[in-house]
Amino acid sequence: MALVSDLGKKLKQEFFKLLKEDEEFRYGVAGLIGLDEILKRLDRNEKELIKLREDMMKSFEQQNAILAKHSEILEKHSENIVKLTEELVKLREDMLKGFAQHDSLLAKHSEILEKHSEDIVKLTSEIVKLRKDMLEGFEHHNAILMKHSEEIVKLREDMVRGFERHDAILAKHSEEIARLREDMLKGFDRHDAILMKHSEEIVKLREDMLEGFKAIQRHLDALGARWGTISEEAFREGLRGLLKEELGLKVEKWVHYDADGIVYKCPSMVDIDVAIRDGKVILIEITSHARPSDAATFKRKADFYEKVTGRKPDRLLLVTPYADDKTIDACAKLGIELYTKV
Predict the structure, then answer these.
(1) E strands, the chain, where?
(2) DSSP state of 287
(3) Residues 55 and 148 in one domain
(4) For residues 304 and 316, what is the distance between their CA atoms, to the nearest angstrom?
(5) CA–CA gap between residue 303 and residue 297 (Å, rounded)
(6) Dihedral, CA atoms, 95, 100, 103, 104, nearest 10 degrees?
(7) What Cα–Cα distance (Å) separates residue 342 from each residue in 219, 239, 261, 286?
(8) DSSP H helical ranges for 228-285
(9) 20 to 30 A Cα–Cα from 47, which one of 124, 172, 310, 317?
(10) 3-state SS assignment for residue 266
(11) Are 305 and 313 in contact (CB under 8 A)?
(12) 254 φ, ψ to 5°?
């Protein structure tokens, strides 16, 4: 018997050791109790979050590329404007040089006129032509400058329209980012709800496991009482606490001397558990393994209790974790309620 007890303890220790150290065994047990599905769902949630972050990073990279391209266009326009400004400065310098040359020529012409008065008319005509050419040149220059001004205005308008398009695109990006943030927050809320539900299910699972372990322990105690590793009285005391916890029955022991040998066919002390609930008397017999003879003995105890106290029991309750078919039939015939859910 001691060997069986040691073997049971070693099996328990080996079981808990495997749960702690063997990951494959732990996941196998977790799969049997439904935890594996919960862990898989958590892994899928983590993968979805990683994918969402990667999509955000790709969107930011595309936006940065568009902004870089816009900056290059602006830099290119800036160079053209600077070049145009330089050309205008050079044109002005050329005009001033031309005016200086014209002044020099006019002074020279005046000297020549003084020396060559006969050529005055011809010179005057040439001056008129020169003035006309100058005016035409100025008009030509004015046309070029006007065209440049128009091009500058168009360039400014194109730049403004480009900025407006960029503003619209950036505004759309801002809206999409805001929507993305809202979708992310909604996703996080859904994940929080799922994780909260998972936590509740895990708590319930733990409670069910604890109840299962308690039931297993009671069955182990029943086996121990049957094989002598623990006393029958210790097992009965444990089940008395269970009856109070689950059925609300406060059990008290009733002991009386059977001088006529009604119960055991010889004079002996008879003890029986008694509970009173709502004014009704309930006699209870607790055993680790019920046999048909136990049911018959329990019925004789009830008859003996009725003879001594003058009160017929309202219910007879036989509590045991193990009962065969013969015992069930015997209890049914003798009016005994059999309770095996322990």
Answers:
(1) 252-258, 268-277, 280-286, 315-319, 337-339
(2) -
(3) yes
(4) 13
(5) 10
(6) -140
(7) 8, 8, 32, 11
(8) 232-247
(9) 172
(10) coil
(11) yes
(12) -110, 125
Statement: residue 6 has pLDDT above 50: yes
Q: Is residue 290 a part of any domain in this protein?
A: yes
| pLDDT confidence band for 205 (50 / 70 / 90) | very low
Token digits of residue 65: 């590329």
Give the model confidence (pLDDT) of 160-180 as tens digits: 888 888 888 878 877 887 887
By the 8 A CB rule, do 319 and 243 touch?
yes
The model's confidence at residue 210, banded by pLDDT at 50, 70 and 90, is very low
Q: How far apart are CA 322 and CA 46, in angstroms?
A: 48
> Residue 151 corresponds to which tokens in the numbers above?
């091009």
3-state secondary structure of 337: strand
**Which position has the higher pLDDT, 60 or 7?**
60
| Strand 315-319, strand 268-277: pairing | unpaired
What's the rounded Cα separation, in Å, for the pair 300 and 23?
56
* 70 is a domain residue: yes
Residue type, 226: R
Residues 173 and 292 in one domain: no
Q: Which residues pair with 283 in a beta bridge?
A: 274, 316
Amino acid residing at 330: A
> Which residue range(s) make up the domain with 263?
232-339
Domain assignment present for 205 = no
Tokens of 94: 């050329």
Q: How far apart are CA 305 and CA 271, in angstroms?
A: 10
Instruction: Quote the number of domains for the chain.
Output: 2
Burial status of residue 308 (CB atoms within 10 A of its CB: 0-12, 13-18, 19 or more): middle
| Residues 6 or more apart whose Cβ sits within 8 Å of residue 145 | 88
Nearest to 294 by CA among 191, 39, 302: 302
pLDDT value at residue 251: 77
Report how far apart the first and last C-alpha atoms of the chain are (Å, whole number). Answer: 24
